[in-house]
Amino acid sequence: MNNCKIILFITFIFFFACSEKENNEDLAPKEVVDDQGEGEDTKTKYSSPIKSIISNNCLSCHSGNSPKANLDLSNYSNLKDAIENGNLLERINAETNFMPPNNKLSTSNRELISKWKDDGYLE
Ligand code: HEC
Is 66 exposed, middle or buried (0-12, 13-18, 19+ CB in 10 A)? Predict the structure, then answer.
């Protein structure tokens, strides 16, 4: 009879140890999610600043009658297409052979182009 009580007691302790741990784990990730959301209400648009980033850094080669790599980036839909279906983001962020040649875009300009995509290509 005494053995039976001990087993019951151990089971009881074990149950509580487990359930307490699960509760703590449930709480932890919520705090991390709440920390995200920095700058959420500022959407990036083509009209500003994307158009001028591209025009200042790309159009000398990627526009006109015979654009380099046959890639014309001088309007909204061509630029969107080069990101959606081409390798534009890979090329501006590449370690070697990046675009524009010999003159890598600033980190903030590259982040803006990625953000324009993430925000849904607003005009
Ligand atoms: C000095 C001229 C020049 C400038 C400025 C320039 N490019 Fe290029 N670009 C080229 C040439 C030449 C190629 C083809 C050779 C290659 O892929 O490296 C090319 C290729 C590319 C390609 C690959 C196309 C494909 O079909 O694989 C992308 C994407 C690109 N450029 C994007 C850009 C972007 C975006 C900018 C501005 C941020 C830019 N380029 C600025 C000359 C330029």
Answer: exposed
Q: What is the pLDDT of residues 49-107, one digit of tens each?
A: 999 999 999 999 999 999 999 999 999 999 999 999 999 999 999 999 999 999 999 99
* Residue 30 backbone dihedrals phi, psi, to 5 degrees: -60, -40
As given in the structure block, the two tokens for residue 11 are: 């089971």
Q: DSSP letter at 77?
A: H
Residue 18 tokens, joined: 């487990």
Q: Where along the chain do its domains lie?
A: 50-118
Q: Which residue's CA is the nearest one to ligand 1's atom 16?
A: 69
CA distance 21 to 13: 13
User: What spacing in Å lies between the alpha carbon of 72 and ligand 1's midpoint?
Assistant: 10
